[in-house]
Amino acid sequence: MTVKAVIAPSILAADFGDLAADAKNVIDLGADTLHVDIMDGHFVPNMSIGAPVVKSLRKHLPNAFLDCHLMVSDPEKWVQDFANAGANNYTFHVEAHADPSALIDKIHAAGMKAGVAVKPGTPVEEVIPFAEKADLILIMTVEPGFGGQSFMPSVMPKVEALRKQFPNLDIQVDGGLGLNTIETAASAGANVIVAGTSVFAATDRKAVIEGLRTVVNAKY
Ligand SMILES: O=C(CO)[C@H](O)[C@H](O)COP(=O)(O)O
Ligand SMILES: [Fe+2]
């Protein structure tokens, strides 16, 4: 198996008034990537940030891997903006697009990696057809829209089913991940761990990042 732990703090839980410094801090403490949550107030009942913030982060953090999670109703519309802004990965929701395969092609053509996400209520069968072509599959472990929610162990069978079929796939989990829930997610087969509140609110952020990584890498 070639997968390894990727620890991706979600900047939704960072200090937006001091964003570049807070984001740099978690990278300096060992985070692999930065997870950037984009919400349009339509696909989810909340708004967050858009491509201009990604552009600013790119300026301040030229080498950071910016993993953008688009919780938007029209994901095709924003591909070029995010590519121009310096995004490295563009994950869209399978529920939001009629032709995910074509959208993956468009994201790749724009020079980004492509991810496909599913909400907790969407069957894993909806994303399995794209697991070979996409660079990652995101299994949401909370209803998208807000940080700080409780991890849903009930979606772990979806992670298990994916890992069984795709031993080398990057399987991302997002929502409620921390030192209390990582064992469940890693045992199911998740290796790309989004962690917002558990990292940014920690008194020892480094210990949380290292703790998450240790539990995931112990599985491989
Ligand atoms: O996509 C998201 C919410 O829709 C966030 O990435 C997620 O909630 C991370 O925050 P936390 O770790 O605090 O749950
Ligand atoms: Fe997210």
UniProtKB/TrEMBL annotation:
GO terms for molecular function: D-ribulose-phosphate 3-epimerase activity; metal ion binding. A divalent metal cation binds at H35, D37, H69, D174. CDD domains: RPE. Its cofactor is Co(2+); Zn(2+); a divalent metal cation; Fe(2+). Pathway: Carbohydrate degradation; pentose phosphate pathway; D-xylulose 5-phosphate from D-ribulose 5-phosphate (non-oxidative stage): step 1/1. Binds 1 divalent metal cation per subunit. GO terms for biological process: carbohydrate metabolic process; pentose-phosphate shunt. The keyword Metal-binding applies. Keywords: Carbohydrate metabolism, Cobalt, Isomerase, Manganese, Metal-binding, Zinc. Substrate binds at S10, H69, G145, F146, G147, G148, G176, G196, T197. It comes from the Eukaryota. Belongs to the ribulose-phosphate 3-epimerase family. NCBIfam families: PRK05581.1-4, rpe. This is Ribulose-phosphate 3-epimerase. It comes from Physocladia obscura. The lineage of its organism: Eukaryota, Fungi, Fungi incertae sedis, Chytridiomycota, Chytridiomycota incertae sedis.
